[in-house]
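Handoff note, outgoing to incoming analyst
You'll be picking up this chain. Sequence as last confirmed:
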Amino acid sequence: MAGKYMDGKDFMKVLDEDCSGVSLVLLFGTEEYYIDNCIKAVKKVFLAPGSSDMDLNVIPQDSKADFAELEGLIQMPPWMSQKRVIICRSQSLYNSEFGEKEEGILKNIPKSCIVVFAPEKAEKNRRITKFILNNGIASEINLFPDEQLSAIIKNSLKKDNIAISDANCASLIARCESRMRLISSEIAKIKLFCAQTGKTDITYNDLEDMCPPDLNASIFTITDCFGSGKCDKALTTLNSLLIRKEPVQKLRATLITHLKRLILAKDINSRQELAAKTKFSPFYAGKLTSQANGFTMDQLTDLFIKALESESDVRHGIMEERTSLEILIVKASARK
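Most recent structure output, in case you need it:
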């Protein structure tokens, strides 16, 4: 599949099938946990049991290694394994000059070796990225859509006879910021909790007791107060988030993102269509559509502009971060 970016699922499929000819790979994107799992899968496929000390080389993220050092590793034959596995996580090496000499090094990777680049950040317009795309496998692995994450959570818990509703799945995803590493950790915690208590159905209160705070739910609560005159409720919700040490900058960014999504939901005005276009879970898309219906488009646009102006005041030192956000909430909560 040279010349076409794969997702993580397609990459795993390649490893499950005939992958003996694979010698050059780029893994990048925002879903670090799945990228790590892809790297583990590469090791499992190509390394013989107990051979890591001899047949595996890892160039860490902060390494200043150059292509000459990489070439030296490439030319070393494996001792016990099908291939020598080289995992290059060095951002410096990925970002370094990539000309004909470097191309020649990667073109001449022997069949007895596989080189996997997995930098923290990759850019599609870089020459090295384009080279790997056309001469190997480039897999872009980003955060999964909410609907897919919800299915993963439900299926994992179902194996232990634990039920969870769509609403609580959406809450768990929001608490973990859609990141599989955090979600996996929380699923393990839930399973342990249920094994100890005998519970077979996870409630919202269970999530409140065990998991990180649901920032999205709090932002929904604050936004519900906009235009209703319930300024005290909005400020109380904000204060509870600040007591839990949620950064004000993060709260502002989440609120601005939420207002963008409300504008989109208002424009589309269909839960099903919103879920299909954005890959939000049907539950979350429904909540956005329902809340958006409580505002006119002009009101939502005005709120969004006010939020951007508030952010600008902070960036230019006109107002302190928390005070600015509180004033924004007071203004937005004024009766329509």
